[in-house]
Write a structure and sequence with these properties.
Shape: elongated
Main location: membrane
Family: In the N-terminal section; belongs to the glycosyltransferase 51 family.
Protein name: Penicillin-binding protein 1A
CATH superfamily of one domain: DD-peptidase/beta-lactamase superfamily
Organism: Bizionia paragorgiae
Distance between the termini: 135 Å
GO molecular function, one term: serine-type D-Ala-D-Ala carboxypeptidase activity
Strand content: 5-15%
CATH class of one domain: Alpha Beta
Number of strands: 23
Number of helices: 28
Amino acid sequence: MKRLILLATKIAICLLLLLIVFVLAVRFNVFGKVYTEDELINYKNETASVVLSENQVVLGKYFDKNRTNANYEQFPKHLINALVATEDARFFEHEGVDTRSLLRVLFKSILSGDKRSGGGSTLSQQLAKNMTGRSHHGILSLPVNKIKEIIQARRIESIYSKENILTLYFNTVSFGENIYGIESAALRYFNKKVSALSIEESAVLVGILKANTFYNPNKNPENALMRRNVVLGQMHRYEYIDKKTSDSLQNLPLKLNYNNLTTKNKSGHFLTYVKKEATKLIDSINKANKTSYSLEKDGLVISTSLNDKLQTYATDAFASHLSGMQEKIRSQYQRNGYQKRTLNELVDAQIKQMNIHPDSAKIKRKQSVFTWKGLETDSISTRDSLKLEHTILHAGLLALSPKTGAVKAYVGGIDNQRYAYDQIFSQRQLASTFKPILYATAFESGKQPCYYLDNDSIKLKEYKDWNPTNADHTFGGKYSLQGALLNSKNIPTINLYLETDFSTLDSVWSRLNFTSKLKNVPSLALGTTNASIYEVANAYSAFANSGQSTTPYSIVKIETASGVVLYEHKNKAQKEVLSKRTTAYINEILQNAISRGTGQRLRSQYGVTVPLAGKTGTSQDYTDAWFVGYNPDIVVVSRVGCDSPKIHFNSGLGSGSALALPLVAKTLKKAEGDTELKKKIRGNFAPLTEDERNQLDCEDFKEKSGIEKFFELFKKSEVSYEKKQEQIKKKEKRKKKGFFKRLFGN
């Protein structure tokens, strides 16, 4: 017996010595690094950068880990109580390691096999694990990591207050779905700041910590509800709430306001655009100051000019208007034989290009399909899926402040996850939205609004006898410049183009910051050139801003998490690109286009009342529909069309006034109902001078006199564009030469 006792004693001493050696080996970094007190003091979370709207709403984040840090003062008392009651009841009594809990785990969990007794890790130990992670050492992994966490927990307790430990804990812990920290969790599951959480909401979030997938309230609501009630029970057990409160809260249903800004975001395309711009700015800052700020890790705060309310109204307009128009275009391609063939030919060509066998393309498989109610999984063939994709109406909308260039709303597409391509920068045929640029050129060249243009049928012989027509197929008589523009007449516009020096038009085009090269052909007058929504909004801003150009921008300020300003936008000096007189004429004419011309549906059907000028645009065969609405406070541009120009409406449903105008109209109508927002969009146009009013005082249309009709009997309907241009050039040379030089020569 003595031998056995002696042997047991020796074994115990050896085991104790081995344990001491093992602990010392861990302590002195034999099994990997153990963080020192200095390293723990200087510990820094990788934190997501936050993008804010003009009105301080979180639009989105850029991150490696989706974490937003919060301060202790932001935590509701009941949130702290819920955490302590559930995870570490003696948190405020121990110094990093709870010996009582460790012994409980040793005897109940390990020796008796009672798994319900819980774990022995304190919040400080869990924090140590969150801060430094765990390493792999085979069968020694668990003891090595546990000893590391105990050592680091004691060090954490020696350098941090309990409040700081709770703050660090809440900012490091994972809540599933790749989100870290209580602030990010509150935003994801309840769409609110942590400071606004209710008791039961705090209990839900604390409940997630036990198993962040199993107790995820979005994916497993029943499990989350059960765990929430356990947390509430623990709060009652440790006397943080009374039984009545605990029982009443446990009877409440689980209520979320789930807000995943990563997968579904009304500002998704805008965030992508801002990220590109912010990356350029941060790279420039780092290069200039020899710093190393990271957009994904350093918790920067990016303030933007976007108005979250206007953005919401715009996305609502997309959903309400385009969902109905989507059904109509699909219905058209189901019943129209010719268009059915066109769609089938397009799909056949794509299937061939994708190297898919035609029979295989007819086999039904489960696929996700875009609908305006959300993505739906359906059993559908590749062929039918491609048909749906080709008939989807894509659209974009951009709103700017013409005075500063600040972006106020930015909807780059119908779904930023499914269709990442940004429609704001897509180059599409301008159609009649080009016309004000031509008319502005005419005014810059000296013509007046009451200058009359022929509306007779013409043929351009150098262009295969091209015979342009008006949209309503009427002709005859004469239109004043203002009448032709506000009614968007094609024939008078072609005649104006024939009388305009191309180099002057090209110069105005460049001054308005368009990038594509103009082609000197008469069809240009009807908008056959391409441009983007971004460029059109920028150009029309010059009309709204009395001829002064601005540079669009979206980033107002970039700050560090501690409030150090790294970048602040400064408005650039404005440049005059058009005369005030020219823009006064254009603005007055396009206001009339809203009141009695092509844009009058804005008032009559949608009831928008703020001062507005506007222009519709419908490209050939209804392939693209445009609308621009503006005043001195705001410019809003929308465009709608399918990906392929071969797919389009075959009637007026595809016109600018029917397809694009409603997006702007519905957005502005809702904005008018918002008292604060209405103040920002109701800008009045500058009053006309007496001379400008006189120059605009004429009829839009008049019949030709008898003498004019008599002389027209001898005039050919064919027009030589080249001869017209030669005459213009000679006329311009004579102007530059002067009277005496023309009379006496050089």
